[in-house]
């Protein structure tokens, strides 16, 4: 991969509400400075990230881009975002949170953002939750279309692990509200499976079976040893959204059965993509109907959240 040695730094500000500047900074999960782009061996590494709005001689307009995290703007309006915007500056919306749980409600955010950096497939900078590797340890996804291996050969170690599986489906339920929320689906699913003399076993604090040693990891170990399939139910069905539940199951030898809003084939992306995007000739055109793009049902969700 060719690397580009630009001399001009692209300065990026991560905007925060003023109460966070002097209070809880636990939401600061984006690395600052330039080192992260060098460490990741990015093709473009001439970017510098800061949370300090006064970093550029107290002139907000000297930042090339400003990132707004959904957690920070959830209860704010653009009027409360007291920074000065230049004509060339890019405003970037960033979220790895579900659009159902964090809709953007204020109409002033329409025609506000130039770029999006989220888990959504159609983001300007897609940000995946996982990577898919082939048997040669090469990254082949996630992407829209993957040429899956039709016939795989398995070594004896793998065969020995699956040889003694004797149960069908397990579900680890650690939030009782999920069990209640999807009761109709689970009951119907169980009835269908029982017609083939199989069962759906529920583990965890909200299930009818207990994890060995009351450990969630022991539950997953038990399922990998005894079950062919593991049910994964996402908390929200936002488009393209997936959580660590699915990732955890994909790291075991239990085939996941998924109930969620994602097609689980996101394109690969890194923090490098942010810097690469800033080195393009980006248009300053804004998302006119941003709220609908982020959450097509935002009116319903905002009404519920805001009362």
UniProtKB/TrEMBL annotation:
Its EC number is 2.4.1.-. It is found in: Golgi apparatus, Golgi stack membrane. Pfam families: Glyco_tran_10_N (PF17039), Glyco_transf_10 (PF00852). Residues 10-129 form the Fucosyltransferase N-terminal domain. It is a single-pass type II membrane protein. It is an enzyme of class 2 (transferase). Residues 164-267 form the Fucosyltransferase C-terminal domain. GO terms for cellular component: Golgi cisterna membrane. Keywords: Glycoprotein, Glycosyltransferase, Golgi apparatus, Membrane, Signal-anchor, Transferase, Transmembrane, Transmembrane helix. Pathway: Protein modification; protein glycosylation. One of its GO terms (molecular function) is fucosyltransferase activity. Belongs to the glycosyltransferase 10 family. PANTHER family: ALPHA-(1,3)-FUCOSYLTRANSFERASE C-RELATED (PTHR48438). This is Fucosyltransferase. It comes from Leptidea sinapis. The lineage of its organism: Eukaryota, Metazoa, Ecdysozoa, Arthropoda, Hexapoda.
């Amino acid at each position: 991969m060719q690397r580009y040695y630009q001399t001009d730094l692209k300065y990026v500000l991560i905007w925060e509400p003023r109460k966070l500047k002097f209070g809880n900074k636990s939401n600061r999960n984006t690395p600052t400075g330039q080192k992260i782009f060098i460490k990741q061996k990015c093709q473009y590494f001439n970017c510098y990230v800061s949370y300090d709005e006064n970093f550029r001689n107290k002139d907000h307009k000297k930042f090339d881009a400003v990132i707004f995290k959904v957690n920070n703007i959830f209860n704010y309006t653009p009027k409360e975002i007291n920074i000065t915007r230049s004509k060339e500056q890019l405003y970037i919306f960033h979220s790895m949170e579900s659009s159902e749980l964090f809709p953007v409600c204020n109409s002033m955010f329409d025609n506000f953002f130039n770029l999006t950096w989220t888990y959504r497939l159609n983001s300007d900078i897609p940000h995946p939750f996982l990577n898919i590797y082939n048997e040669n340890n090469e990254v082949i996804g996630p992407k829209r279309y993957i040429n899956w291996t039709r016939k795989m050969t398995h070594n004896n170690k793998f065969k020995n692990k699956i040889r003694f599986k004797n149960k069908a489906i397990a579900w680890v339920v650690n939030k009782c509200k999920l069990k209640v929320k999807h009761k109709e689906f689970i009951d119907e699913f169980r009835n269908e499976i029982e017609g083939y003399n199989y069962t759906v076993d529920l583990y965890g604090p909200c299930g009818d079976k207990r994890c060995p040693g009351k450990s969630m990891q022991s539950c997953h170990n038990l399922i990998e040893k005894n079950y062919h399939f593991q049910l994964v139910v996402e908390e929200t069905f936002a488009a393209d959204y997936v959580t660590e539940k699915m990732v955890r199951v994909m790291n075991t030898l239990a085939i996941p059965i998924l109930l969620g809003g994602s097609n689980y084939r996101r394109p690969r992306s890194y923090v490098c993509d942010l810097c690469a995007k800033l080195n393009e000739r980006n248009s300053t055109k804004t998302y006119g109907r941003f709220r609908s793009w982020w959450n097509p049902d935002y009116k319903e969700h905002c009404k519920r959240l805001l009362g």
